[in-house]
C-alpha cells in the first residue's frame, strides 16, 4: 500500500517488444514511464529536485519558484510543488500543446507562455531574468545535479534488477539529459561494458522533448563521457515509430519516445545478440491536440 502519491513514483513496468523488434536474437524492452502519476519520467527528477532543495534549505514555502520547461518537467513540478505547498511559475513556448498547459494549471501552477520563435531557449532566458530582477528561485533542471541523481537512485537500479543484470544497451532520448546521465552512471558502475546510446534529432528536425542544444544552452549536467554513442533520428522516423508503438505494441507515447524506439530498433538490427532497454518517457494523451496521431 502506498501512503502518499509520491510513493507511486518509479518502479515503472519494463515490457518486452512483441512486434517491432527486427532481430530475434535481441531482446528489446521498453521502460514505460507514463505509469508515473504525473505521466512521465520527469516525476522522478522533479521529486528529487524539490525534496533535496527543501532539505538543504535552498528554498521554502515562502519562496517564489520558477522553471522553464518544454512540458513534462513542468507538469511534474506543478504536481509535486502543490503537494509540498509551494508556489511555482512555469515558463514554456506558446506552441506547447494545450494538454500540457492545462495540466500544469490544473495542478495549481502559474503558466507563462513565451514566443514560439525563440523556443525553449527563450523560455530559459525569461526565467533567468525573473531570477535576476525579481528574486525568484529557479529549480534549473539543466544544471541541477538532483536531476540526474534521481535516475542514479531509481531508474538505473530498476533496469538493472529487472533485466537481472543482463542489459547490454541503454537507449534514451536526450533533452535535459538527466535520465541518460543518471542511468548511465549507475549502469556503468555495475558493468562498464554496457553501451549507453543517446538519441538526438537530426539537423533541423523538431521533436518535442529532445534537442541538439546550441553550445551556450548545453545542460551543465551533461557529461559526454557517459554516452558511448549518439544516434540521430528525423521527424518522420520519430512520428512513424510513435504510431507503431501504439498500434503494434499497445504503448501510447509521445514523439520523443518514438524517436528513442526508432533508434533502438535501428540498433537491434546491427547486433548479433543483446538486451536493449529503451525509455518511453511519457504518455501520448498530452499530444492529442497536435497532429502527431492524425
From TrEMBL:
UniProt keyword Amino-acid biosynthesis present: yes
SUPFAM superfamilies in UniProt: Tryptophan synthase beta subunit-like PLP-dependent enzymes
TM stretches of this protein: none
UniProt catalytic activity: O-acetyl-L-serine + hydrogen sulfide = L-cysteine + acetate
EC number(s) recorded for this UniProt protein: 2.5.1.47
PROSITE patterns in the cross-refs: CYS_SYNTHASE
UniProt GO MF annotations: cysteine synthase activity
Cofactor: pyridoxal 5'-phosphate
Top-level taxon in the UniProt lineage: Bacteria
Entry-linked Pfam families: PALP
Segments forming domain Tryptophan synthase beta chain-like PALP: 7-282
PTM-bearing positions, type N6-(pyridoxal phosphate)lysine: 42
GO biological process, one term: cysteine biosynthetic process from serine
PANTHER family registered for this protein in UniProt: CYSTATHIONINE BETA-SYNTHASE (PTHR10314)
Protein name, entry field: Cysteine synthase
Organism for this UniProt entry: Arenibacter certesii
Lineage of the species this protein comes from: Bacteria, Pseudomonadati, Bacteroidota, Flavobacteriia, Flavobacteriales
Amino acid at each position: 500500500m502506498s501512503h502518499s502519491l509520491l510513493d507511486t513514483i518509479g518502479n515503472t513496468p519494463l515490457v518486452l517488444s512483441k512486434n517491432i523488434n527486427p532481430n530475434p536474437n535481441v531482446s528489446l524492452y521498453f521502460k514505460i514511464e507514463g505509469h508515473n502519476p504525473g505521466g512521465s519520467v520527469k516525476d522522478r527528477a522533479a521529486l528529487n529536485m524539490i525534496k533535496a532543495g527543501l532539505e538543504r534549505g535552498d528554498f521554502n514555502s515562502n519562496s517564489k519558484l520558477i522553471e522553464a520547461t518544454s512540458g513534462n518537467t513542468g507538469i511534474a513540478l506543478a504536481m509535486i510543488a502543490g503537494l509540498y505547498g509551494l508556489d511555482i511559475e512555469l515558463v514554456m513556448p506558446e506552441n506547447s500543446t494545450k494538454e500540457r498547459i492545462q495540466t500544469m494549471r490544473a495542478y495549481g501552477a502559474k503558466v507563462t507562455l513565451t514566443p514560439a520563435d525563440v523556443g525553449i531557449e527563450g523560455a530559459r532566458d525569461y526565467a533567468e531574468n525573473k531570477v535576476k530582477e525579481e528574486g525568484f528561485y529557479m529549480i534549473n533542471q539543466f544544471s541541477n545535479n538532483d536531476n540526474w541523481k534521481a535516475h542514479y537512485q531509481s531508474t538505473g537500479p530498476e533496469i538493472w534488477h529487472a533485466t537481472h543484470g543482463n542489459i547490454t544497451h541503454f537507449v534514451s532520448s536526450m533533452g535535459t539529459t538527466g535520465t541518460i546521465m543518471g542511468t548511465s552512471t549507475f549502469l556503468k558502475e555495475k558493468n562498464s561494458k554496457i553501451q549507453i546510446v543517446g538519441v538526438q534529432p537530426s539537423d533541423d528536425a523538431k521533436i518535442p522533448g529532445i534537442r541538439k542544444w546550441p553550445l551556450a544552452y548545453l545542460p551543465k549536467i551533461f557529461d559526454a563521457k557517459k554516452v558511448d554513442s549518439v544516434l540521430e533520428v528525423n521527424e518522420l522516423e520519430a512520428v512513424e515509430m510513435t504510431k507503431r508503438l501504439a498500434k503494434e505494441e499497445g504503448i501510447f507515447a509521445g514523439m520523443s519516445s518514438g524517436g528513442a524506439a526508432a533508434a533502438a530498433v535501428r540498433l537491434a538490427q546491427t547486433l548479433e545478440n543483446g538486451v536493449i532497454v529503451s525509455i518511453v518517457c511519457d504518455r501520448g494523451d498530452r499530444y492529442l491536440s497536435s497532429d502527431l496521431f492524425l
